[in-house]
TrEMBL record:
Region Disordered, annotated ranges: 56-76
Source organism: Paradevosia tibetensis
Transmembrane segments: 9-30, 140-161, 173-205, 225-248, 283-310, 330-356
Membrane topology summary: Multi-pass membrane protein
Top-rank taxon, per record: Bacteria
One matching Pfam family: BPD_transp_1
Protein name listed in UniProt: Microcin C ABC transporter permease YejB
Gene Ontology BP annotations: microcin transport; transmembrane transport
Alphabetic keyword roster: Cell inner membrane, Cell membrane, Membrane, Transmembrane, Transmembrane helix, Transport
Family label: Belongs to the binding-protein-dependent transport system permease family.
PROSITE patterns from the UniProt entry: ABC_TM1
Major localization class: membrane
């Protein structure tokens, strides 16, 4: 077991390196970098995320052996009226005065020492910025995942027990319709119906807590917290029931048809004893294995539109704004952290699989 864990941990190194290298290369060709963004702000011109250096300027730059400061400044759209020294200072500030390979190596070395730098446009470290956004993402990811599993697993078991019944048919129709509805559309519908739209005004539309949260008692703080989360979590969770519910149902149906269930019935065990003592453990293997991936997916992604609609400042919105603003320290640091965390959680998922079912041995299979 220890050799398998060590091998998996060592394989994470080239995996993370490949993710960071590909992303870094792509970023080098992305137009509208941080220097150009800063120049646009200083000159009062708007620069879109798709702006780029003109082809003629690129050709002139490529054809010169050495580039003067004035020629370098001309490469940036919107740099007219700014001194070449100022442009060079901006490049040095953002670290673009060094070759790409040197910048990439320095970035990896810093990340190995857990030094993720500071945001380009905010006077705060990347770690502190992530910590600032974590409460929203933890709230959305944790409660949505618990709600999804808490409903889908019992519902899937009930559907498997009543396979082919009217209950099975109409619940399948409901969850498939919910799966087909985009979360942002459900969010808009909830806002219109229950949050000051054309009908009721039962729930708040902004923030994770109320303005007077600090003055509330503990029971009122808990109630206020869930009062603000009710609509966004509902909007995210409506479409998450179908896959897990049907996976649970099919897993139980597959186990029920196996020979050991027939043997257990022949020994006089009741249906509940067979279901929860024997079938449950085997059928839950796939569900348990999928939990870490589902949690990471809910925790780190898929909440951008919901965060925007309900004015929740979380990691999804942070990542989107960082990409648009070319805030590369935030982009690369979050990518690195989430990639490492995702690989570790995948390893934990496999180890959990082996613990639940001793018949599975990844170590022998790898050998």
């Amino acid at each position: 077991m220890s050799a398998y864990i060590l091998r998996r941990l060592l394989l994470m190194i080239p995996t993370v390196f490949g993710i960071m290298a590909v992303t870094f290369i792509v970023v080098q060709f992305a137009p509208g970098g941080p220097v150009e963004q800063a120049i646009a702000r200083m000159s009062g011109t708007a620069v879109s995320a798709t702006s780029s250096v003109s082809g003629s300027q690129q050709g002139d730059f490529a054809g010169q052996g050495q580039t003067s400061e004035s020629d370098k400044a001309s490469l940036y759209r919107g740099s007219r009226g700014l001194s070449p020294q100022l442009v060079a200072q901006l490049e040095k500030q953002f670290g673009f005065d060094k070759p790409p390979l040197e910048r990439f190596g320095q970035m990896l070395w810093n990340y190995l020492r857990f030094d993720f730098g500071k945001s380009y446009y905010r006077d705060i470290s990347v770690i502190d910025l992530i910590k600032e956004k974590m409460p929203v993402s933890i709230s959305l990811g944790l409660w949505m995942t618990l709600l999804g599993y808490g409903i889908s697993i019992p519902l899937g078991i009930a559907k498997a027990v009543r396979d082919g019944s009217r209950f099975d048919v109409w619940t399948s129709g409901v969850i498939i319709v919910g799966y087909a509805l985009p979360s942002f559309l459900v969010g808009i519908l909830l806002i219109v119906l229950f949050s000051g739209g054309s009908f009721l005004s039962w729930f708040p539309l902004r923030g994770l807590t109320s303005d007077n949260f600090a003055q509330l008692s503990w029971p009122m703080k808990i109630a206020d917290y869930f009062w603000h989360l009710a609509l966004p979590i509902t909007a995210m969770a409506v479409g998450s029931f179908a896959t897990l519910t049907l996976l649970t149902k099919n897993s139980f149906l597959e186990e029920v048809r196996k020979q050991y269930v027939t043997t257990a019935r022949a020994k006089g065990l009741s249906d509940n004893q067979i279901l929860y003592r024997h079938v449950f453990r085997n059928a839950m293997l796939l569900i348990i294995a999928s939990f870490p991936a589902a949690f990471v997916g809910a925790f780190f992604s898929g909440s951008l539109l919901i965060e925007t609609m309900f004015s929740l400042d979380g990691l999804g919105l942070l990542g989107f704004e960082s990409v648009l603003n070319r805030d590369y320290p935030v982009v690369f640091a979050t990518l690195y952290i989430f990639s490492v965390l995702g690989l570790i959680i995948t390893l934990i998922s496999d180890l959990t699989y082996m613990w639940i079912d001793p018949r599975i041995d990844f170590e022998k299979r790898g050998a």
